[in-house]
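Methods — Computational structure assignment.
A single polypeptide chain was analysed. Its primary sequence is given first, followed by the predicted tertiary structure written as structure tokens.
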Amino acid sequence: MGKYKKEASRRGRETKDGMANVKQKGENFYRNAKAAKHLRMTRDTGGAKYSVDGSKVVQTAAFQSKEIPKARIEPNRKWFGNTRVISQEALAGFREAMAERKNDPYSVLLKRNKLPMSLLETGGKKEHEAKIHVANEPFDMTFGPKAQRKRPKIDVGNIEELAQGLEETEKKYQEKLELDRLLSGKIGEEERAAGIIGEAREPVFSKGQSKRIWNELYKVIDSSDVVLHVLDARDPLGTRCRSVEKYIKEEAPHKHLIFVLNKCDLVPTSVAAAWVRFLSKDYPTLAFHASINNSFGKGSLINLLRQFSSLHADRKQISVGLIGYPNSGKSSIINTLRSKKVCTVAPIPGETKVWQYITLMKRIYLIDCPGIVPPSLTDTTTDILLRGSVRVENVEHPEQYIQALLDRCQVKHIERTYEITGWKDSTSFLELLARKAGRLVKGGEPDLDGVAKMVINDFLRGKLPWFIPLPAKEGGEDDPEKVEGREGRLGEMRKRKAPVDEDADT
């Protein structure tokens, strides 16, 4: 029996109706918690129960019986027939409709695993064209006694077209081999082994192409759901990484690629608007000006990222990676979106060494990537330098690139910036500027290298106005493509012209 307060309360509840030892709620004076736990543990051991003499099993243990349960599976007619059948006309209509949606840069295709994407991607590089033709034709017209396919179908009509197609295929194959050699870094070793002396190129022009930089790029692409390709508004085609676009399109087609035209404040408004329209044919394009206090395009970019976040509502968050050439403004865009300095920025390339993970909001994260310079057989050292891909102070002979710089700028802009006139060539321009600025070396000679580095830095940092115009139209016109209805500032509403009343008095 219990003691103290519990026993006293039990005795106080004793009555003559036989309810003396009824257990009340919250009262357990017969055993404590440890004893109750041990009792529950030993009550059902889960083992088999035997007879009194222990000779045979009276009740088997749980999940130990070997008897087959009596069950019947209902047969279904779908076991013996095709469950998904589509006619040839419906298949052709599906392909056409989905191809339009797939090629549209402003349409998003979600839940690709629930769609028969193999029916759309028939032109892949892993399938032979003959296999594709056989798969697209009806079965009764290809095989059997009513077959109409007498010879293999080819895409050419005569022997000249066949020879031309073979030449184009060979050219593409050679270009692919050269690109693979460049990416592997063995092209220089092979030429030296063969005794070929190539173009003398300074080591500084190989920056942004190392294996470490490409590993960082692939990390960012693999970790991102949305990829922002940052372009320089002054030279969008020159800072466009087509090899990276091809990689994303082939290896990761489910990722969304967006163009961000940064530094749009350094070009005229009409030129920036024309480039936005030109690039929007391939991918969605936004004009942007990175500045913490006075930015442009920040609201549009955040709204676009929120749309992608709502499209992927089944995920807790999405990651947005920023890629592009060095010194294109990737870290500045992140600082602008956060409205404070969270990434180290500098007007020189190569400031970002490794990828960085930054929180924009609860469901959106940003990934900063080091600048990359895709290898190209057509880009010269002048193109690489004037795109801002290398540090000017590490170039040994910068004065040899001044003439190309002067060709890209208008004379009136150079005269207004430096307040000098009357130069004939790049050397005389550097001499006039050096004597005006007092940049002289021993003996009163002008410091051409120092002045050339100063001019190139002014060119890259926006002190000298310049931009690359739009490419000419296919029809042969020299005028760049004009943007209809957007003659004012970027982002303004398109104004409608008032209807003209012909009956009104003039």
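Note: The two ends are 117 Å apart (CA to CA).
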